[in-house]
Amino acid sequence: MPKRKNTFSSWRSRLAQRAVHAGWAWVQRTGSVTAAHPGRFRFGALGTGTRLAFPLGTVFGEPWIHVGAHCIIGEQVTLTAGLMPDLDLGPEPILRIGDGVVLGRGSHVIADTTVTIGSDCYFGPYVYVTSTNHSYDDPHQPIGKQWPRMHPVEIGPGCWVGTGAVILPGARIGRNVVVAAGAVVRGTVPDHAVVAGAPARVVRRWTPAEGWQPPLRTPPPVPIPDGVTPGQLRELSRLDDEAVARLAETGDPQDAAGRLAEPAAES
């Protein structure tokens, strides 16, 4: 015999679940860090529209951390300046993050010496950037007890860094670079390149003379024509491939949208 459903218990469970979700959403909103509501944090700079999502990762040395405007710092992201908290790091910022940067959930940016992330960089989750590495010169001492080596890190504007990538001390990454997921980057990476592997190497690059080499395997995205409204975009999302191709060919959203109405009229 199937067990009879306890309607009252089920109702209470649903109510409790909704309460938990609503409460957690309130905690996330209230615990997030912004320029207007920095909480206990005293960043050297925190731009307008920037938000550090709650729960935060480890954050210390924030007087030497400068974050630009309209940045999104995901949950559990670690941002540190200096080897440990409560150090005096001098008059200049140690960690600089430009405008419009996105740091994915669980990422770490460890700036024991200067780390610079250019504007409009997008990081996937669990990216690790560090300006410090352990040294192992003395074979008779535990590696963790040997003084680390520090080298500045610079990531140019407009880069995309994939999930789980590691940026090592001394890395110099140019403008609009793609770092593949899981790549381990050291040394210098030129502008407009794609790097992958461990250690990372250039697998594709763009130059004004030759374009992308090797050539891209996928066609470029079709830009949205001028004058297209949000309502038209919602309608276009329902179109078939033929109508989308016609839009790309004619640039007329009304003509393409008219194709949406044709099946309805026929039926």
TrEMBL record:
<dbReference type="Pfam" id="PF00132">
    <property type="entry name" value="Hexapep"/>
</dbReference>
<keyword id="KW-0808">Transferase</keyword>
<dbReference type="InterPro" id="IPR051159">
    <property type="entry name" value="Hexapeptide_acetyltransf"/>
</dbReference>
<dbReference type="GO" id="GO:0016746">
    <property type="term" value="F:acyltransferase activity"/>
</dbReference>
<dbReference type="InterPro" id="IPR018357">
    <property type="entry name" value="Hexapep_transf_CS"/>
</dbReference>
<dbReference type="InterPro" id="IPR001451">
    <property type="entry name" value="Hexapep"/>
</dbReference>
<feature type="region of interest" description="Disordered">
    <location>
        <begin position="248"/>
        <end position="267"/>
    </location>
</feature>
<keyword id="KW-0012">Acyltransferase</keyword>
<comment type="similarity">
    <text>Belongs to the transferase hexapeptide repeat family.</text>
</comment>
<protein>
    <submittedName>
        <fullName>Acyltransferase</fullName>
        <ecNumber>2.3.1.-</ecNumber>
    </submittedName>
</protein>
<dbReference type="InterPro" id="IPR011004">
    <property type="entry name" value="Trimer_LpxA-like_sf"/>
</dbReference>
<keyword id="KW-0677">Repeat</keyword>
<feature type="region of interest" description="Disordered">
    <location>
        <begin position="210"/>
        <end position="233"/>
    </location>
</feature>
